[in-house]
Fold this sequence. Notes:
This is UDP-N-acetylmuramyl tripeptide synthase (MurE). By secondary structure, this protein is an alpha/beta fold. The chain has helices at about 5-15, 80-95, 110-125, 160-170, 180-185, 215-230, 240-250, 315-330, 335-340, 370-380, 400-410, 430-440, 450-460, 490-505, and strands at about 5, 20, 25-30, 30, 40-45, 60-65, 75-80, 100-105, 130-135, 140, 150, 175-180, 195-200, 230-235, 255-260, 275-280, 285-290, 305-310, 350-355, 360-365, 385-390, 415-420, 445-450, 470, 480, 485-490.
Amino acid sequence: MRLTRQDVTKILQKHDLLVSEPTDDLVFDHLHYDTRQVQDQTLFVVKGAFKAEYLAGVDGVTALVTDHDLGTDLPQWLVTDSQKALSVLAMAYFDYPQDQLWIGAFTGTKGKTTAAYFAYTMLKEATAGKTALFSTVDRIVGPNPADKKKSDLTTPESFELFKDMRRAVDNGMTHLVMEVSSQAYLRNRVYGLRFNVGAFLNISPDHIGPNEHPTFADYLAHKEMLLDNSDHVILNAGMDHYQAIFDRAASQHDRVLTYGRAGTAPVNGQQPLVTFTSQESALHESHFTVTTGVAVPDLHVISGGYRLNLPGDFNEENAVASLMMVGLAGADHQSMVKGLDEVTIPGRMLSLKLPGHGVAFVDYAHNYVSLLSLLAFAKAQSPDGQVIVVLGAPGNKGVSRRADFAKVLSQKADQVFLTADDPQYESPLTIAKTIADGITNDHVQVHFEMDRITAIHQAINLAGENDLVVVAGKGEDPYQKVDGVDTPYIGDYAAVKECQQALLAGRDYSWRISHDSFLPR
Length: 521
């Protein structure tokens, strides 16, 4: 929609962001923060260390919103925080699409994507397809192939966020399930956005480093912001730092909806309001039962037994949080049963039987808690076999993960192939050696192979009939981030599938299968 000078000033004043304003009589047909996307009559929002010379040769910018005076002749609004300004102006520019959507959001160190897909699949069934999804993997804003695209960020920049919400509303969507990262609050990508339901799944140290959160306390504080901005909140009673998180939620809400595994010790003398019991956890599925207490009559609809089309009892926790969320959204029980029975998640807990070489699991596990859960499950499934792991760690972010991975590998792996995983501007071999240096169990055999596809092939070639090969980190991602460039990559699942097909056909795949590969050394 069009924005006038008066509109912009009023919005910025409402959110206490305005420092000074221009006096020109201005009307804007467009809003943006990227000089490559500027059109005629654009109000341009300056982000970060932007300089006036960056506007040289850019036609169409008629005014600026900035938190530092650029010293140009263009009219400008000076604000206290340009990221916050971008968010509230984007809401208005796209005509407040969030007001036309029921929105449920997940945060947590691990499981956000899994839980989001669970809730999305159930709500999609319950709403006859009128549910959108913003996840780490995909952004889905409608029913057609053109309405689905790969995500660049777990939670997109605010302009893109509200743009996609507008597309979802225009496509007839009534509900939205999304992930909200700590970075989304750190960078004010969701500033001013209110959620119908916010679920906090778990917390453990992650995303701590020079380019991310300076401390764990800062990381947790930004995660907790979801609780302040949600009408209803759901908490995992079994997570670390639960009491502190519960207290934060209770300070903002009369009712905090808690869930946990049946039979666990109560916290402060209170059992979770919703409990679940694992019935069976097999290689390709799990079964569990949910029980709701008398204190949550609005959630009785979720009580009952479920088959989850995903292995691992650790996924049941995420499923219960998702059931509670969609129950609050008004979903019917049959849609819940069908949704969990049929759900598939790109790159998550994908399993492939390998003739003579056991079973391979492909999963996006990329931090301490998710990798620990994955390897513990794998070890339990084949106690007499080896757990052979293929993984790396990203460059220039989450540096603490390297020590965390070493700790998990020391406890749960028999062999590990260390390889590349989005190395960016770092040497993947240096990253791999850092992980290896942290492995304290001398019984873990360590292999180095920086070509990821070759590493996967070698791990499978090494596996015996009772072994499990766990390929962690990339899932079905179609690229590796190298030197700031998204370099094409066939994906972990496709690499494992190559091996499976070769084995089924009786071919030898122990050398490199021909493909366009990623080869950092």
